[in-house]
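Module 6 notes. Inverse folding takes a fixed backbone as the condition and produces residue identities as the prediction. Think of it as a translation problem where the source language is geometry and the target language is the twenty amino acids. Below is one complete input and output pair. Work through it position by position during the lab.
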């Protein structure tokens, strides 16, 4: 039986930790034509993890640049950036701000508000703490892996096309995976 705790993970110290965008990634996958998954990435441009004395006073914020959506297909990327989907001209930034962080055994649940396409909805990031290390430049680093699933319709992303064989071109469930490397600030 696991127990809930508010203690920080072993090795994580209080302070401000900045997300290292060059060593972090947000990726997504969605069912295409009902038979395969399309995968893509979007750049994390900034993020801050404010670690308090315990989880009750710890918070996470992040911003992602929707104009960097990359599915390795320029035509599809252009369509995703258009008003049919993310409308990046009017909504170029996605954000996340935690509301609570809880632990249960080895895993963590980071609940917060995710804003995509100008629509904010609560989500829970199932999170694994990867530990801490000192890099060759003397920086204290912490690593995290997180995931969640969202309904794209909940964010006003309703464009679709009917398939001749039944069903629709773009699935509703979007799986999101996040890899974070954060550096402790002086």
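Target side of the pair, the amino acids:
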């Amino acid at each position: 039986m696991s127990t809930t705790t508010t203690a920080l993970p072993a090795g994580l110290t209080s302070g401000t930790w900045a997300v290292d965008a060059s060593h972090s990634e947000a990726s997504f996958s969605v069912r295409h034509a009902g038979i395969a998954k399309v995968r893509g990435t979007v750049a994390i441009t900034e993020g801050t993890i404010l670690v308090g004395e315990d989880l009750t006073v710890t918070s996470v914020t992040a911003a992602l640049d929707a104009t960097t959506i990359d599915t390795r297909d320029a035509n599809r990327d252009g369509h995703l950036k258009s008003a049919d989907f993310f409308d990046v001209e009017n909504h170029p930034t996605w954000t996340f701000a935690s509301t609570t962080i809880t632990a249960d055994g080895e895993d963590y649940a980071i609940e917060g508000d995710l804003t995509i396409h100008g629509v904010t909805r609560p989500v829970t990031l199932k999170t694994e703490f990867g530990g801490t290390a000192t890099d060759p430049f003397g920086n204290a680093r912490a690593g995290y892996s997180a995931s969640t699933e969202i309904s794209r319709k909940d964010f006003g992303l309703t464009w679709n096309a009917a398939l001749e064989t039944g069903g629709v071109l773009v699935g509703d469930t979007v799986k999101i995976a996040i890899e974070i490397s954060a550096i402790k600030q002086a």
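Reference fact for the lab report: The longest strand covers residues 36-51.
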